[in-house]
Design goal:
The chain has helices at residues 2-26, 35-39, 49-61, 138-144, and strands at 44-47, 67-75, 78-86, 89-94, 99-101, 113-119, 150-155, 158-163, 168-172. It has 203 residues and is of the alpha+beta class.
């Protein structure tokens, strides 16, 4: 009798645990990009017209590096960038060869970020691995420290980008004669306060 009671108790425990796991599986995923989406390997980067216009304007306007938050969504293996929002960058932290944000895109108020993009104003060194090798550049190392599915470099009339499979690809822009600005120009800076960013859909 005692053995039967023990068996019934154990059986009920297994059934209860299975039921709990089933209910948890039915719970909706949190809003935004989830970790399994970060692990996906993007095969295409699609830039909206608005994103392309913003990149072209920024590249022509400043001789220093700019940095932006690519806002959009993922559909299958494609990352669709609807717009580019300015990253939170102090004016003194953007030079011709380096740019450092003060905080993440989310902390700056930009929800829906799928990746970061920055420029190489001279149109040089637009790669994540040193040519002919698999030695990672500083840009590749920076991407490895992020959680986003893609990273990109604006390089004149093209955007070079990297996915989590660490395969470098590129997207051409519409203006074949796009050139960077020549000094002297105003110093770059995109300082924004946390929570003070423009609402989604505004420039």
């Amino acid at each position: 009798m005692q053995a039967r009671r023990t068996w019934l108790f154990a059986t009920r425990g297994v059934v209860a645990a299975a039921g709990l796991m089933f209910l948890l599986a039915l719970q909706p995923e949190p809003a935004g990009i989830t970790s399994d989406r970060f692990d996906s390997h993007a095969r295409a980067l699609i830039l909206s017209d608005q994103a392309r216009r913003y990149l072209t304007l920024q590249y022509r306007s400043y001789p220093t590096e700019f940095m932006g938050c690519m806002i959009g969504e993922i559909h299958g293996n494609a990352v669709i960038v609807r717009r580019i929002a300015p990253a939170d960058v102090e004016p003194g932290h953007s030079t011709a060869t380096r740019v450092v944000p003060e905080q993440t895109c989310e902390d700056a108020g930009w929800a829906g970020t799928v990746g970061m993009i920055h420029s190489h104003p001279d149109g040089q060194r637009c790669w994540y691995f040193f040519p002919g090798t698999r030695v990672a550049s500083s840009d590749a190392h920076s991407f490895a420290r992020q959680a986003y599915p893609v990273d990109a470099i604006m390089c004149g009339n093209r955007v070079v980008w990297l996915s989590r499979d660490m395969v470098q690809q590129q997207v051409g822009l519409s203006d074949p004669d796009l050139r960077p600005a020549t000094p002297p120009r105003q110093q770059r800076g995109n300082r924004v306060q946390a929570g003070a960013a423009a609402p989604e859909g505004q420039d």
